[in-house]
Amino acid sequence: MVRLDDTIAALATPAGTAAIALLRISGKDTIAIARALAGRPPAPRVATHLDYRDRHGALLDDVVLTFFQGPRSYTGEDSLEISCHGNPFIAQKILEDLFARGCRPAEPGEFTKRAFLHGRLTLDQAEAVRDLIHARSERALGAAQQQLRGALGRRMAALTDALLGALARVEAYIDFPDEDLPPEDRGALREALEKISADTARLLATQRYGALLRDGIRTVIIGEPNAGKSSLLNRLAGHERALVSPEPGTTRDFIEERVPAGPHWLRLTDTAGLNPAPGPVERLGIAKTRERAAEADLLVLVLDATRPAPPLPPDLAAALRPETTLLVLNKIDLLPGGSVSATHHSVPSLPFVPETITVSALTGAGAESLLAAIVRRADALRADTGEDLVAINARHAHALDRAKSGLGEALAKLSANAPVELLASDLREVLDAFGEISGKVDNEQMLDRLFATFCIGK
Question: Which end of the chain has fewer surrounding CB within 10 Å, N or C?
């Protein structure tokens, strides 16, 4: 059974050979271990260069020790960082010696869990640490940094303060049961709850953008066979990821590649061509194409600029929307004189005028314009949250959805002149839901599940 008063140790840098490796220790025995290694009481926040000798006096490495005295440390406990040479064998030998001195191996995320439990971080800030480590784009990094610095916490504090004010007003009438909420107080309370509900819904609307930042923007390339979809994926990826052949129907299944696009990260998917008369295997690939298109955040419809536009399948045409669709006319290098004016016959009939980009996947002409258009569409997916970039995750969304439902119930009871006790019960449930986001509600199982997704040493 894991005890949170144990002294823990772990490697905090990735496994493998490097110039330096960093090991971390945290817990009640840290200062005794630091004193044994340095031969004297350690000075807080002072780097000390010394020989690391194991319990038997054998030299393992020359290292730099830095002691952090609790509560002014990452975990809120006494902590020690050991920088050694980045030879995995050396790091492992030092870890084994630390375990022999009374440390135990840290669980995934245990350092950050202790920081939360000691009040150094709120739960949403702890999640931001994980997002910061895994961020793969400028926007994802910016959102994680703002959340770590309290952007979501400030929003939740404002919502919680407003809710507490409303709840206090209701609780006052419970304390004086002979009174009832007069019409003027009901009107003020309704106005306050409606504003809290609207602000909650606005925050809830950022969930989709949060998922796009963490998982990548699902950008699906679709179109007729042999229009150059695979060539375009290779061009955007910067290497030969997909097999390219003059033979139509080469792509029978979807191919996914992670591709940076300005400040965003794309999950770029090449799909089977929409052949109106497919064979049995090709038909399975087209079914996958339809599935991917239905799940896409952005659709890139690729057509051959040298041929008339083919009719689009009705279900696919109905799925195209102006805000998420880009039309790409490929192979402009094959047009007479490279003229793009001859591409008008290649534009399909749609209920809207799509943004159209002309490219040559072979030469790279127009590729930068296409990436710029994708970045504009990706930026437009962001929900308006004001100055701070707030992008909630699925756990936050679940709590906010509960809060929004509770506020709806409270407003309905207020309209029906229900007893104030029932109204207060709904508002307390909303307060609990708000508290889940920052971790003010104690739920040990939820915490264990959350921090288990962190890496060891963090």
Answer: N
